[in-house]
Amino acid sequence: MSYNVALIIPTGIGAALGGFAGDALPIARALSQVCDHLITHPNVMNGAQLYWPIANVLYVEGYALDQFAKGHWGLAPSRGNRVGLIFDQGIEDDLRYRHLQVAEATRATLGLNLTDYVITDSPLKVELRTSDSGSSWGTIGNPGSLLRAAECLIREAKAEAIAVVARFPDDVDATVLNQYRHGSGVDPLSGAEAVISHLIVRQFQIPCAHAPALAPLPLDPTISPRASAEEIGYTFLPCVLVGLSRAPQFTAHPTPASLWQQDVQALIVPASACGGSATLSWGHRSTLIIAVENNTTQLQVSPEALGISALRVNSYLEAVGVLVAHRAGLNLDCFHPHFPSLQHLS
Question: In 10 A of CB 264, how many CB atoms?
């Protein structure tokens, strides 16, 4: 039987690891070495212009991951998706051409299969918000325009996955942005990005991911290494196109090759961010829940508060060791000096 693991690091909550563009990629690379399939989401895999294709990693958008964890959808492997591209009408011509050049480059240098693109029939009007907890979210002024563009790509261009490039506001709170660029605080964009991809996946049951279009930031030689991936070019689109090109399709009908909720043996989440739909779904099954304590977030939602039985570990490195032992069928109590005795059942 295959051994499959899900890795979730929720977006927009200021995760110490995975709260920046691509800084959770080393975690995914390590975990992928000790399982047959690692199921994770764009927030973990996207590193702006940096990416690392991993053969056994399944790139699953957040809404689809929730449906998978509930047992509503299965994941069917893809041999390579035709990726359709949506541009927000609100993007300036120069900025749109920069993103088009990225798309053409991935076709010419990586061999990706892209369809012709669509421009929305009205500006999407993305607005950014911050909740009382400190997490980020956002709204779209014209969601119908986004859905019409996606429908066109699916119907006319036979797109099998969709990448969206929306114009995001440049007037982000200066203090929030400065904190983020220097390695603390919350990504002010990521919450709104999730709303965009959720809309399309929920409506069309097709893989989707988003790349924000922004004016380049002024040079700052002192930014954090964790924020540096977002500073090296005009666009965040390359990793999205690569991820979507290999993303699994969603299915309601089991096949010999598809994966389902019950095929996941372990889930790894930050210890303070256990309130998501997927975690709640797996948390009440026999799935091993591994809660990582040093990946702090803006949230304070522990597994214990939700009645979820979880194994707490200090780090992702420790989680790798737990997976090795769990896959081998070992009693995890063996690795503690105070080994419990068997008790009499009356």
Answer: 22
Confidence of residue 280 (pLDDT cuts 50, 70, 90): very high
Find the range with the poorest average confidence among 2-6, 51-55, 214-218.
Answer: 214-218
DSSP string, 70-128: HTS-EEE--S---EEEEE-TTS-HHHHHHHHHHHHHHHHHH---B---EE-SS---EEE
The residues, ordered by sequence, that sit 6+ positions from 94 with a Cβ below 8 Å of its Cβ are none
The helix (run of H) or strand (run of E) holding residue 69 is helix 62-70
DSSP code for 219:
P
Cβ contact 60:41 at 8 Å? yes
Asked whether the beta carbons of 181 and 220 are under 8 A apart, the reply is yes
Q: What is the pLDDT of residues 18-58, one digit of tens each?
A: 998 899 999 999 999 999 999 999 999 999 999 999 999 99
Q: Which residues contact 43 (CB under 8 A, 6 or more apart)?
A: 9, 10, 11, 18, 24, 62, 190
Using a 10 angstrom Cβ sphere, with 0-12 exposed, 13-18 middle and 19 or more buried, the burial of residue 203 is middle
> pTM of the full predicted structure?
0.95
> Bridge partners of 208?
162
CA distance 279 to 257: 24
Nearest to 264 by CA among 246, 279, 252, 250: 279
Pick one of 3.40.50.2000, 3.40.50.300, 3.30.1480.10, 1.10.260.40 as the CATH number of 4-77+251-332. 3.40.50.2000
Greatest pairwise CA separation for the chain in angstroms? 76
Cα angle 69-72-73, degrees, rounded to a multiple of 5: 85
Secondary structure (3-state) at 251:
strand
The pLDDT assigned to 95 comes to 95
User: Taking all residues of the chain, what is their mean pLDDT, rounded to a whole number?
Assistant: 94
CATH number of 83-236: 3.40.50
- Total residue length of the chain: 346
